[in-house]
Amino acid sequence: MDIPVRRLASGDIDQLLELFDAVAAERIYIGTEPGYDREQKRRGFASRVDNDANPSFVAVDDGRVVGSTGVYDHAEFGPTIGMLIAKTHRRRGVGRAMMHALDEWALQHRVPALHLLVFPHNAPAIAFYRETGWTEVDRFERDVTRQTGEVWDTVLMRKSYA
Ligand SMILES: CC(C)(COP(=O)(O)OP(=O)(O)OC[C@H]1O[C@@H](n2cnc3c(N)ncnc32)[C@H](O)[C@@H]1OP(=O)(O)O)[C@@H](O)C(=O)NCCC(=O)NCCS
Question: What is the 3-state secondary structure (H, E, C) of 103-151?
Fold first, then answer.
């Protein structure tokens, strides 16, 4: 069954924070780790509601937010995305559906390219992004310090629309 993807609404934000907490608690996929500033994150999500320049999209299954993606402005790379799907809903086409929403937005707004940063050990995400038209363009050594004290590289990926 298809899980619909739509623009983020204010009523989604509590559930989106819960989803974000759960993926942060996995500790291996996204930059944010538990203990992050939840109120700042809430304000960040709220600022994306009805925001066509920096939109967020959510996937909703039976009233529950199970996936999210959003576009933020990176100082160096320009429009840059993040994406996360609930553990229970991975590999069911939700990411692909959200990528379609991003593609439509990028084409509509004549955005020449989107970027993202991914940890090199995140093989599922790298496979997913390659499959959906992204390519690796750079690698930043020792880019992110984790709460354990480990320092991880990041890979910069790009999807062109021009
Ligand atoms: C990466 C992520 C967003 C992918 O979303 P998803 O909904 O699971 O992906 P989809 O089901 O739409 O997969 C589409 C295609 O991507 C590829 N793919 C997705 N997950 C994969 C995996 N674990 N291994 C290999 N290929 C994979 C496949 O080609 C898949 O098509 P198929 O299932 O028909 O073979 C999701 O796994 C996730 O949220 N992971 C945790 C958070 C994260 O890593 N976010 C990205 C940080 S940069």
Answer: HHHHHHCCCCEEEEEECCCCHHHHHHHHHCCCEEEEEEEEEEECCCCCE
Q: Helix (H, G, I), strand (E, B), or coil: what is residue 88?
A: helix
56-61 and 64-74 strand pairing: antiparallel
Cα–Cα distances (Å) from 58 to 3, 4, 137, in that order, read 10, 8, 27
CA 149 to ligand 1 centroid distance, Å: 28
Please tell me the pTM assigned to this model. Answer: 0.98
User: How far apart, in whole angstroms, are the C-alpha atoms of residue 31 and residue 145?
Assistant: 9
- pLDDT tens string 102-141: 999 999 999 999 999 999 999 999 999 999 999 999 999 9
Decide if 118 contacts 28 (C-beta within 8 A): no
Q: Tell me, using a 6 A CB cutoff, whether residue 90 lines ligand 1.
A: yes
Q: Using CA positions, which residue lies closest to atom 44 of ligand 1?
A: 29
Q: Domain 5-160 has what CATH class?
A: alpha beta
What stretches in the chain show pLDDT beneath 50?
none
Tokens of 18: 């819960």
